[in-house]
User: Which sequence fits this backbone?
């Protein structure tokens, strides 16, 4: 067999091998894909008073846990225009589409000042979660990273 024919077979084999690899964007998600805890940061601005939220700068950090079947819970600490709230918790629901986009709604705040926030989210293949709050008069972005179990 000539060198050319060997090279041609090697090239054809490489093309076949590469064509069997998953293509970009081929990731398929469901609620099961979003399971576990994420450390997160929320930053932005409250444009106009919304429930207990006061107009001005806003930042929060916390832990959010998705159960893999559509339930979510969080504990966070926040600073809302200088008003600090620590260890605030909340619960809600989420839905993740096949294309790894989705949404969740979560109710947070002390029992007397409950507010429900809605977010549109994207889960990427590095287990990072990004989102934007879609509640009116609230301009906030959400960035979460998967927390892995730590063994000692």
Assistant:
């Amino acid at each position: 067999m000539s060198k050319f024919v060997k090279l041609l077979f090697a090239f054809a084999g490489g093309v076949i091998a590469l064509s069997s690899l998953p293509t970009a964007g081929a990731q398929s998600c469901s609620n099961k894909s979003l399971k576990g805890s994420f450390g997160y940061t929320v930053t932005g601005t409250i444009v106009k008073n919304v429930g207990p939220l006061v107009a001005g700068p806003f930042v929060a950090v916390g832990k959010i846990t998705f159960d893999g079947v559509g339930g979510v819970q969080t504990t966070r600490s926040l600073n809302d225009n200088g008003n600090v709230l620590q260890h605030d918790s909340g619960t809600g629901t989420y839905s993740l589409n096949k294309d790894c986009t989705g949404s969740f709604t979560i109710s947070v705040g002390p029992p007397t000042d409950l507010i429900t926030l809605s977010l549109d989210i994207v889960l990427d293949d590095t287990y990072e979660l990004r989102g934007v709050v879609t509640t009116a008069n609230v301009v906030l972005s959400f960035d979460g990273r998967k927390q892995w179990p730590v063994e000692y």
Q: What stands out?
A: The helical segments are 3-19. The longest strand covers residues 83-96.
